[in-house]
Structure formats: structure tokens, C-alpha cells
Amino acid sequence: MGRAFEFRKGRKMKRWSAMAKAFTRIGKDIVMAVKEGGPNPEANSRLRAVIQNAKAANMPKDNVERAIKKATDKDTANYKEVLFEGYAPHGIALLIETATDNNNRTVANVRSYFNKCNGTMGTQGSVEFMFDHTCNFRIPKDGIDPEELELELIDFGAEEVFEDEDGILIYAPFGSFGTIQKELESRKLEILSSGFERIPQITKKLTEAEMADVEKLIEKMEEDDDVMNVYHTMEE
Predict the structure, then answer these.
(1) Distance CA 208, CA 197 (A)
(2) Can you give the pTM of this predicted structure?
(3) Rounded to 5 degrees, what angle do the CA atoms 177, 193, 56 make?
(4) What keywords are assigned to this protein (predicted)?
């Protein structure tokens, strides 16, 4: 198996935020998708993807519809996606994805987490190159052979296709998202969820005590409502 498989396995073992936090993140994704491409999922591929993810997270349909309606209100603040970079203790690179309606607040918060946990906030581009920006899709197994599907989707950008207990996962470079989404939809294959991830090219093994130092910083980041994802180069 490739790096995407190992990365996914590590992420599954990792604790996930509370359901309310997941709903908050999806709500922001809905606002950004609607502001970008309108409230009609049929005409807005990004919104279609977010609705699929909401369904996968068991977010009530009423919540989704309310979020879409709220996003169409011109008084609703838009969220800007901002990437932060830096180092945790013991030389572990961190990449923090945020969605914020107040960049000054988010910058101040992220900087304070680095400072309180003996980390170092970096400049733009200081660690981003250490991660591959990927997209992924999850579809039902439904008797599909992952190896055959991988061969069929290579021409559309797929790099890794594998099966886990929840379905079949397809990984590709970030820029292939729209092409693969369109191909899966044209094949009438149900997309259970989709998204983007940053996979570290190289990871570093730490002792348990060192891992605890890094986890302390990651947890502080993840508790912030503006933070969507935290990626790192620590071996899990």
C-alpha cells in the first residue's frame, strides 16, 4: 500500500473532535461553497461535495438547509481559508488549515498556541512543500474491485485506490478533484464523502514523551473554532 493508505490508517486511529465541532466545520464549508458558487447543489459541485460530507457525518438535513439559507444572506460573513505553517517541538512541521471571518484574531490565536507550547510559527512556504496536497473520495464497495477501479481512474488523475471497512477510498492530487468527481457521477457511483488532505512526504519518529509535547500543541490548535485541520510530520 502507498502513503495515502498509511496516512489514512494513522488518521483513523487518532481521536476526532466532538460532533458539534464537526458540524461547525461543515457549516463553514457550506457558507464558503454557497458564496463561491450559489445555493443550488446541481450547479455547484463544491456544495454537492459538502452536502455529501454532511450526510456522512450524520448532520441533520434541516441543519444543512438552514446553513444554505443563511449563507445566501448578504449579511452573513464570508469565511476566508488561511494556511498557517510552523514547527512544533522536536522539529515536527505543522500545517494548519483555518477558515476565518477575522484574520487578525486567528493569526493572534495561532501564534499564541505556538508560543505557549514551545513551537515556532513559520513564514508562508516554510513547511508547505513537505506535504502533498491531495483530494479523496469514498464510495460504497458494492462489489467493486479496487485494483480494476484504480486502472480505470488513472487517466483522470487517481494515484491510489484501496478498500477499508467503510468503503473504497480514491486518492489523487488536489487539482484532480473536479475531474474525478465528474467521472464518478457520470458512472452513477455514489460518493459517500470527499475532501482534501495534506500527506507528509517524510515523517519523524519520536519518543512517547516527545510525542506528548507535540500532541499538546496540536490539541490546542484543534480546540480553536477557526481551525479546520492540523497536519504534521510526526510518525503515528
Answers:
(1) 25
(2) 0.89
(3) 160
(4) Cytoplasm, DNA-binding, Transcription, Transcription regulation
